[in-house]
Design goal:
mainly beta; five-stranded antiparallel sheet; single chain
Length: 219
């Protein structure tokens, strides 16, 4: 299975961009600026902390509003699961409208897109990481992460990598790690993982669930 591909895109009012998804699914998350997404003759307003979902085989245009520079995190999800013609589809969702849910060690998350909103193959979410360090753990999914704000350290075995706003991370399934917030305020990340599921599904190195909602697995 091909890897998730994460890219930061920038658009100015003078240079709108026409893009095509090809044979992948794509999710967008607006970092800054305001603009418009045009898809199949429909126009959707975009603002900071707005997410968008594009199906395979779609062409769309992104246009920044004057005088803004619009910055967007794009994640492309190759090898999508087959389409369900009866599945619901929400093109644009505002983060502020989504309910916070609990994860490990007092962490929270809000779902931007998942199979319930049309995204077939992955879960797109924003995570909130407090200053309390979580134990080392792993997930059973592949994940890409973008740090929205805050500072911290990614612990991966004996390796320590400093993180700050704008840092990107790629984690393969079952990689034992800890994302530690070393700042004074909550760190926020936007992430996509495949296959779809709950961001709370984490496991300690011995395979024990780190959160009550995580199903048991064999190591």
């Amino acid at each position: 299975m091909s890897a998730l591909e994460q890219t930061v895109l920038e658009f100015t009012p003078l240079h709108p961009a026409t893009r095509a998804t090809g044979d992948v699914e794509e999710v967008l998350f607006v970092l800054s600026g305001e603009g418009t997404l045009t898809l199949q003759d429909a126009r959707y307003e975009l603002a900071p902390e707005t997410g968008a979902y594009l199906r395979p085989g779609e062409e769309y245009e992104l246009e920044a509003h004057d005088p803004d520079l619009m910055r967007v995190v794009s994640v492309q999800i190759p090898d999508p699961v087959p389409a369900d013609p009866d599945a619901p589809r929400e093109v644009v969702r505002r983060l502020a409208d989504q309910q916070a849910q609990a994860a490990t060690t007092d962490r929270e998350f809000r779902i931007v897109a998942d199979p319930r909103t049309g995204l077939r193959s992955a879960t797109h979410f924003v995570g909130y990481i407090p200053t309390a360090r979580a134990p080392e753990h792993f997930h059973t999914y592949d994940e890409v992460i973008y740090v929205l704000d805050g500072e911290g350290v990614l612990h991966e075995g004996e390796t320590k990598r400093p993180l700050s706003a704008g840092s990107s991370i790629e984690l393969r399934a079952r990689t034992v790690h800890c994302l530690e917030n070393t700042g004074e305020d909550v760190m926020r990340i936007v992430a996509v993982f495949r296959p779809a599921g709950s961001p709370a599904a984490a496991y300690y190195p011995d395979g024990t669930p780190a959160h009550p909602s995580a199903p048991s697995i064999s190591t």
